## 1
Amino acid sequence: MQSVLRSNDRQQQHLSLQMKQAQIAWVMENIPGGLIAIDNQETITFFSCPAFKGLGCTPATMLGHHISVFHQRFGAPSETSPLLDALHKGTESRRVSHRLGRYFEAVNSPLVDEQGEIQGAVCLFIDVTERVLQDRELKRLEKAQMVGQLAASLSHEIRNPLAIVRGHLQFLSTTEEQAALRGQYEMMVEQLDRVNTMLQDFLDLAKERLKQSAPHSLSAIVARIRPMLESEAYLAGVTLSIELEETPEFLLCPDDIHQLLLNLYRNALEATPPGGTVSMRVGLSAAQQPYFEVCDTGCGMAPEMLAKIGTPFMTTKSHGTGLGLLQCVNICKSYTADFSIRSQPRQGTCVTVCFPATDESCRPAP
Ligand code: ADP
Ligand code: MG
């Protein structure tokens, strides 16, 4: 009776041991890296590296082999192996290495017995490619931000001496002694104005957004600048049609919306020959998103041009800066607004800016 019980116990223990082994094997097969152990003959005694399955590195092909077999497959030199350093010098190490197009962080450590003797070494490694790439991108962005700030302050500083040079040139162009060179002076002033416009556009681009945000509605902003829009259309000989539907207030900086609207509106006017029409519509979409649309019956854009929208300095105008649409795209990004353009050569262009839906608390009182 007792021996039957003992055999049952043994079966039970055996079963639970098997389950534990299967669980460990399952965990090891799913780690995003691997674990390798060697004995003091440098022979692989444990090998579980799901990350290298594709290289033909499996327990069946690696166990019992010298560690150099793995190093060869992995493309790592055996002479500088931190795993062998751990075995022969007892050094622990942690390092990130780049192998086979991925980044691995490896921890190497000696395996020490109860008497303090090194009996082998172990290497645990993990695929950290995403983390390394993210860190790099972060550093790149920090650098780009710093360069942007430097460029913005440099642009600001350039404008003062530029204004002085422009003033003197303008003065010289009006004097009798320089009358013969008037045309050249005017050309120089014109070019300086162009540089100044570019610097202003660049500074607007580098400006930090959403600083003085307060609840405003798109419809109220357009209503306020309507007389200015009408006079610009009149001067260009273009018919302006404005459809204004009252829109809810949301947090915005009116300067941003002015800049966005005026850039799109002026592009529309510049693309439309006298006798054409520019229409502006402000409203609330079915999904409760405040939007505005600027459409024109102008020259339109070729598909190659459309594909390059937002590329700095891309302009087809002799006095253009090619920074206006980039500015619009950046403002839209800072409001998580959708910016879309439809355009047909010789038919016209329609630009729509759709802001995120506003919540009830931001709506104007009925
Ligand atoms: P800029 O107006 O200084 O040229 P933008 O960034 O505002 O710079 O515009 C870039 C280019 O996109 C313009 O030069 C023009 O070729 C094209 N474009 C923009 N808006 C329109 C439009 N409404 N119709 C036709 N072309 C346009
Ligand atoms: Mg423009």
Note: Residues 263, 266-267, 324 surround magnesium ion (ligand 2) (CB under 6 Å).
## 2
Amino acid sequence: MAFKKIGAYLVEGQTCDQQAIQAAVEKQTTLGHEGIYKPIGQIIVENGDLTPSVLHSILQKQGEDLLRSVELFKNLPQELIEKICGVAEYQAFPKDKTIIHQGDQADSFYQIISGSARVFRVSDDGVNVTLNTLEPGDSFGEMALLTGEPRSASVKTQEACGLLVISKEAFDKLASEIPEFSLALSKILSSRLNRGGVELVHASATEKAYQRFISKQSYGIEPKLIGRSRVVKQLQDEIKAAAKNDRAVLILGESGTEKSDVAGLIHWKSKRKEGPFLSVDVQTVSLGRSVDRPRKHDPIRLELAQSSALFGHAKGTLSFAPERRLGLFQIGDGGTVVLENVEHLTKSVQTKLVDYIQHGQFKPIGEQTSIHSSIRIIVTSSVDLNQEVLDGRFNKHLFEILGGSHTLTVPPLRNRKKDLRQLAEHLVEYHSRQTAKSIVGIDLSVYKSIMAYDWPGNTDELSAVIRRAVNLAQSNRLTPEDILIGTAPRGTDRLSFNLLKVDRIRRLFQSSAFPNSAQLATAFFFVLIVYLGFFGTQTPDNNVSLELTWGLWEPLVILSCILAARIWCAVCPVGASSSLISHKYGLNRNVPSFIRNYGGYLAVAGLGAIFWSEVVFNMPFSPRATAILILSITVPAVMLALVYRRRVWCRFLCPLGKLVGFLSRCSILELRANQNICNNDCMENSCYVGSEYQAGCPVFEAPFVLHNNQDCILCGNCVKNCANQVPVLNLRVPGQELWTFRKPDLTMAFLVSIIMGTQFFRGLEKTDYFHKYTAAQNQEWIFYSVIFVLSTSFAFLFIKTAGKVIFGSVKTSSRVTPNLLAYALVPMVVIFELSFHFERLISRGGQFFPTLGRQLGVDWDFLMVSMSPWWITFHQIAFILVGVFASRAVLKNILRLHEDPSKLRLSFRHQWPLLLLAAVYIYLFWAG
Ligand code: CMP
């Protein structure tokens, strides 16, 4: 820009001759060599060629001329320019002087008169990123003053600079008294926000917060709607039509769909393209510096926060946000403002919005005068607004205005699977660019798993999964190892308490002794059991390995599943040895997709085989069979560990792991993560990949994909690795995970059938009829096998038939809906298992000392623990009744999720399977 130097003013006004100026320039150069910077005017005054008051008036004139020539002030009347110059102070800065430090509190606003300065930011990982170079006419330092946040960046002179400095107090005064000044600032602000995604990656936390506050997505480049499906083409036509005029737009669609991109495209294609594009999520709107988000149940605060975000507030009107704040409707003048999740606007803000749409003016909170602005309003929602109106929660008038213009619906991802491949490719390319990686391909099996999933979190979820995959990728292709797909847990407001908040528990999970020392102890017992099984006596009453296994270990493991989920697997010596072997001698190959895809079925089949051999070989009374069982689990685990990475056996194939995971579904404990932090702030993924000191997740999971207890083994590696302390160990009301799934899993139906079938068998085995029939058989094991297969098949048929009756009216795939019943039956089946083993704990576990005594040749019979059979049966029946109620509650919630909740009433049609099963279980206990 044309900038008149001070010398020119002095010569023009004949206040000083050319020679004096020349002498001053030379002195300035000499001083510069010594590292001292002095402005020319000051040197001339020091040389006695000019009085300070004359210099002051010349600087004032220079400042005024400059202000008139810069964008920010050029349209202001003369008296305002004078007023601003009156509160501004001219200051000179040498080369390489940092004027603003990122993170500091704001005290001034700067206008560059001469020289140039660099705006840069140091990212969290220490990278110094230049954001811009500022020249005469540019200004800086307004962001922190307007938002109350700390400085978003540092500013350092590149050469000696002359600046007009306006103090915070003067700035606030100008901003509140001169609307044109505020508007001009708003324009600068929004142009700074309209930057491309690359820089946003490096944005400081302050600016990120600031971005969230006023502009979740500002487009420096044209947003894209990816896909060639019919629905996407139709949407593109609708976008074009909406961009042709200025009317309000309503965009509907499930959360996570590309509603913001659609809004961005409408803006981009409209004549407002050059204006600001700002968007705010009205549900989580922030109040600025001192307060983060309004608390959920504080409607007054929410209302103030929303009003202030949209319309702004005057200084001192809100006690919790004392600084003045500009509203979006002021900042976005000439552009587009998007209000996300509009249904969350409070009633009175809805009324104000109607008023603004109709009259184009508004009053900030605490201001007397109205402000005019021209904004195109786009609102988004993921609920049925019509219903909201009928329920009296949404302003009818506002709905009519919005619905009367353009209404666009963005389809969920599961209804446009045709677009998934293109979308995935686009996201891989985008995230590779962002992370400076060169991922060039995606394995076919990755596409398969992307296609097989329903993406309840829509494009946002897909983007998070791909961002993470790109991040994790070791080569230039994405493999199934990199893709961690999981359903975002719903209903995070559950009643729960994070045990990791308790210092001792956190320390335990973080200590290196956990779970190693416990693994040593369990390994000792396993070795003892195997030794006694092969080398000890085969007389059941004299071999303590049986009491240890069936009387203590098995019931206690089952109890531990209820109390502490899969924690047994964390201390299991089989898992520990496979980890050790894989680490020391393993080939560390990737897990083949066959194991990934079908491992679950194999594990269920293995469990069936264990249950079968348990009854056929009467394992609880055979020390050798018991030892063989333990070896049959250990040997494949170790062999697989030699070939594949991590604990592939524990994660995909271990039958006992499958059982323990199943029982843990009803646990009062869960390990989960705050997905928002994982998806937005974490780049290391150390929970999954591990760190220098600690291995990553041994079972190919990560806390952010966990939505049930089936796979996490509570080993604590993620707790040790995560620098953000994201994993939480919740004490919870059990059950929720049994209905918050989208698609019933077929393995669950098989698993429940096999466990339930075994339970029927165990019950039958105790009846007199059973004994009569077995006595008549020559080959007992054939009879046992037939009954075992029959009872398991019966359980499977029961689930299918009863499931069809209960869920007949649910409108999803008829092949899978009956399996929903399997989930409802889980509590009953788990409680049966618990009651059954309760009896074993007393009857077999109670024999531990007497048996040990017999083995050691001493009489410890007096140490026997027992309970009257009546008492045991009484407890078992009481357990089952609790199970009925728990299963009923789960059933109700599953139905609620799949049927209209308002019409739902549990009738006999829904409940008979539970009652029938309870009757059978009670009979079996009774008969036993
Ligand atoms: P503030 O956050 O108060 O302090 C640092 C200043 O750097 C900031 O205000 C803006 O004035 C300026 N700034 C931040 N980002 C940019 C950018 N991308 N381009 C130009 N100036 C910027």
Note: Residues 869-898 form the longest helix (30 residues).
